[in-house]
Amino acid sequence: MPSFYADLAPISLDELVAEAEMLTRVDRKYVLHRRDLDTALGGLDPHTRVLRIDARVPQPYRSTYFDTPDLRSFYVAAHPRRRKFKIRTRTYLASRTSFLEVKAVGARGITVKERIPYDYDDAMHARLSEGTSNWLEERLRAAGQPPGTGAQLAPVMWGSYHRTTLLMADGSGRATVDTDLDWASHDSYLERPDMVVVETKSGSRPSEVDRLLWASGHRPAKISKFGTGMSALHHHLPRNRWNRVLNEFFS
């Protein structure tokens, strides 16, 4: 069956980063059933470009999420608070490339992400190397966390998925489409092959993908791969913030 990106021109990773790195942006997330995806995005501008790496679309990703023993990162996501932060390693499996990332939500809901290259083996073995401790601590303090937070971090969840990345025809933003999602913790595992997460990354104005999804009846949803995954894996954790998605896709 043809996919929504089948006829789109390719863009390389270097070109994508140069044209729309979008590390400071407004994010909107949508959750769809996979059967609805091609219909919802079938009307994309034909000048939209799709990321291809070694002729591959989509690309396989793996993320490891780190938190404190009291799950501070999870709880500030579960309860709406201004000082949200997230620590993860992200690995692009096809190219064996990894990054250490800090995401924090600043003023007016703007998400700021900072990242540095990371050792592939450390990422795959869920290790935080000592050489990154000062960098992490500085970012965590800037995100409003108390001194010493970085030293408490340990891996709490793993996730993998396949990602299709789009650059809008007018260059105003990006969108990602994640499929084949799964999550794992130290003692639990789940997968959701029918679930698709679409995320638009733009300035204050909605992108073309936003407008296409709205026209198909889809509205932004509260979902965090980290927060929703933790709640789905561990039923004793709060779930109210992501109830709609959990009830529809994880019940």
TrEMBL record:
Q: Which Gene3D superfamilies match?
A: VTC, catalytic tunnel domain
User: Which CDD domains does the UniProt entry name for this protein?
Assistant: PolyPPase_VTC_like (cd07750)
State the signal peptide span: none
Could you tell me which Pfam families the record lists for this protein? VTC
> Which GO terms are recorded in the biological process aspect for this UniProt protein?
polyphosphate biosynthetic process
Question: What are the residue boundaries of the VTC domain, all occurrences included?
Answer: 25-234
| Record-linked InterPro entries | VTC_domain (IPR018966), VTC_sf (IPR042267)
List the coiled-coil residues.
none
Q: What is this protein called?
A: VTC domain-containing protein
Q: State the species of origin.
A: Corynebacterium testudinoris
What broad taxonomic lineage does this protein's source fall under?
Bacteria, Bacillati, Actinomycetota, Actinomycetes, Mycobacteriales
